[in-house]
């Protein structure tokens, strides 16, 4: 993995910012109003290679690290965009890279890098299981040289716009395993090949996140699309969660800076009672406090990313970064809404859109309550609460 110097990292940031100028806030506002997928933006990101930075050079990627990936997503969100439309491609391919065999890597990663194939969908959560992943009920039964999948997933974002899905399914009944984390297997599902056996239903939500519920009826997956060993899929999923947490933290950091930037500009320009409203401490202090929280969260994000790149165990840091960044962004979002007052609710100012988007990461991809529980149990050594 190549390591960028400070100058190279800043060049990456400048290049991403330049790309984002081609997709101003009006683009994102209109996309949000139409509840549409930002296809043009994702194509531009892919063409410039930003979504393939974590793919090694031998498989067609840039061979860069988590630090660089974080900078990319942060700048997209700070510009007023929403990198959630493409972020999964950065971390879902990690399961193939870390646990797939060489044939799988050669078959899929180069095409993911060029955009010929999109790996944007991650099928893990189910309606009855929620965050209790070991209780999922979607089954994959081996019959000959294929697994037959039946079941349902929910909150599977971008399934409509992805060619491949990383799918976690039960290959051994829960009552037949010694450990509750056993018996789950991870697959690469070619959704286009099995589209007649897959039903995708969009879920209308308060943000434009292209999330869906997916139903599988006798879906066939060739045995060569099993990632790693059968029954070990849960640990493969866990190994990718650190990357997911760190990248999500980066989006929240970007959101936080976006709100601060907008608030500072508006508070300096908006004049009421013959003085800029930013002169009032009631306006100024919440913005300054949010900025300090974002700066602190960024430091934890940076630490987690650097540990990830050097192969360290960054589970605690990744979780804490996600928690701190999402909470800081939400604090900044509320400060921005208060700063803009009534105009914050007007769609043309874009604050209300970003306000809605920022709230997501307090509950997704993992609720912050579970992060606190993780820190309490695994970092501080407190008794397990569930």
Please describe what this structure looks like:
By secondary structure, this protein is of the alpha+beta class. The chain has three domains: 6-114, Butyryl-Coa Dehydrogenase, subunit A, domain 1, CATH 1.10.540; 119-231, Butyryl-CoA Dehydrogenase, subunit A, domain 2 (Beta Barrel), CATH 2.40.110; 237-379, Butyryl-CoA Dehydrogenase, subunit A, domain 3, CATH 1.20.140.10. The protein is built from eleven helices and ten strands. The protein has helices at residues 6-20, 25-33, 39-47, 66-78, 88-99, 102-114, 233-269, 281-309, 315-340, 351-360, 368-379; strands at 119-123, 139-143, 146-154, 164-170, 184-190, 198-202, 212-222, 226-227, 271-272, 275-276. The strands form three sheets. The chain has a four-stranded mixed sheet. A four-stranded antiparallel sheet has the order 2-3-7-6, with no helix packed on it. A hairpin with a 2-residue loop joins strand 9 (271-272) and strand 10. Helix 5 runs antiparallel to helix 6 (102-114), helix 5 runs antiparallel to helix 7 (233-269) and helix 7 (233-269) runs parallel beside helix 9. The two termini are 39 Å apart.
Shape: globular
As a whole number of angstroms, the C-alpha radius of gyration is 21 Å
State the CATH superfamily name of the largest domain.
Butyryl-CoA Dehydrogenase, subunit A, domain 3
**SS field, number of helical segments:** 11
Task: Supply database-style keywords.
386 residues; alpha+beta; Butyryl-Coa Dehydrogenase, subunit A, domain 1; Butyryl-CoA Dehydrogenase, subunit A, domain 2; Butyryl-CoA Dehydrogenase, subunit A, domain 3; 3 domains; 4-stranded antiparallel beta sheet; 11 helices
